[in-house]
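Quick question about two entries, pasted in order.
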Amino acid sequence: DDILYSRTVQDCERFCDDARAFNCRSFSQKADRCYLSGDDSITLPDTKQPNEPGAIYKEKVCTRSTCDGGMFIYEKTTAYFLRTARQENLPLSSNTPGITKECARLCVDQGADCPAFSIDYNGQRCFTLDRNTQGRGDDLVERDGSNYFEKILVARMNGLTRFPLSLST
């Protein structure tokens, strides 16, 4: 999360789009302050957004219907796995090191049936998962030798890659 100086809501939106240190999912603009957050109403479903006079709150919203021309990327969480997900082994062409790219391709080939995947580097295995962390962020559990990858749809607008934002009440 981050706090920046910002004159306008548009500046704050741009800061959220351009954030590189974390996946910015929402922002609040009040006076000359821009509050960027890695959380939103999906990652913190039980947390009510405070009604702050003069503040504007927006969340990233990106689905197939709002992201024409978008592309899928993966957000990697190192040394974690999603404990509540049902996993199915993805057959790899070999068991040589460097399986991440092949696992990502196998997941993309499955479309919506693979919202996330995990890799067990110790056993050189790759698993498709039946769910992602949306609403289940607490279900990520530490596990050495494993990485969790969540599929994220990124929109393309005016030649730039960014997420559309919508006002949330």
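Here is the second entry:
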Amino acid sequence: GWSSEVLHKWVVQQTKVHFDLYESFFSKHVYELIGVPIVIILLFMLRSVLPSLPNPRNKMFWLIVSCLIWLFVLSGMHYCILRQPAPFGVHPQTHSVTFFHPMTSAQYAFEGIFVATCQLVASILMVVLVEIYPKMQGDEHDKIVVGALLAGLFFLSVLFVRYLFFTKQHW
């Protein structure tokens, strides 16, 4: 992405006019200003939801919480919080928007979220194939079609993540 420092350096090189670059408080602390209220809201929501659950061992609730935590970890949000990368970039020659960073050791925020979502979809499809599909009632032909569709979607999402990985690593 184009950070303010990169644009500042480019303007100084092109115009030979030196000036100071001041960043606002919001631009320096955007993740803290957005992330802390979201965490506080989620904690209050969790505090209000837990007593109203009929059974504290509600599997669906903990499945959703686990998926959200897993999505957070896989998307590299900890990387985004520490390094504060741009959400997306602009290709220097074509000026088109790009969501995948060209360097192997860096990422845009949307890149991590997108790949983690693909992995989460593949995982959910695998759980459906293993747990729900064998218990499915109905016509044998319908069951075969649904199973083939689920397996196809699973393999497509896995192959897509694999393709993105190999494209990113230049293998």
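Reply: The mean pLDDT is 77. The chain is about 65% helix and 0% strand. Hope that helps.
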